[in-house]
């Protein structure tokens, strides 16, 4: 009876041991690289549990050993990928931040999503099943306010609410550089079609038609400085070639 009581008490004291496990796997987080945690277990334990096996680095990923080979992520829309181990894709909000690696209190939110761990698997998972994938979209700013583009920490934070009012907190961090954007600036579109140019002045007088002008014509178009010359032209060409909007009697 005493042994059974001890087991029961332990289960109540450490519910995270038998509950949700998961987090961000892409970009690859510190927990899987510099910290060497197991992707099937310790990688995805709640932050208050990880403190026990990070060699003094604490439970939150911002205290983990930084990655020196920072992955480059283009500015603009970006998809973060996650996984829930052991069917534990619990409900709860997720947020993603860019953080100053030298000042963890300086951060900028770049995305949020309710129940993000159910984005690709809407229903609750079952214990003992293979890892359940999930993803969420964020927007990477080209010029973040919290950190320098060539040295940022991307922090994924998930608050699992399946034991509400108790909350289980999970986070993962990846050291990143921000690139110039997925496809660069778009090529400029075609310019507007040119408008009509000014009406040309009268060219050289066309050859006189076989039947010569009979006189008595005048220029009847819009007033212009060379109206007298155009009247002469009308008399030389009408009626054989006599534009009605230009010459008349």
UniProtKB/TrEMBL annotation:
Which keywords annotate this record?
A: Copper, Signal
Its transmembrane ranges are none
What ranges does the record list as Pro residues composition bias? Answer: 187-210
Cofactor section: Cu(2+)
Task: Report the Gene3D superfamilies cross-referenced here.
Answer: 2.70.50.70
**Which interval of the chain is the signal sequence?**
1-20
Q: Does the keyword Signal apply?
A: yes
Give the span(s) annotated as Disordered. Answer: 181-219
Signal among keywords: yes
Name of this protein:
Chitin-binding type-4 domain-containing protein
Q: What is the lineage of its organism?
A: Eukaryota, Sar, Stramenopiles, Oomycota, Peronosporomycetes
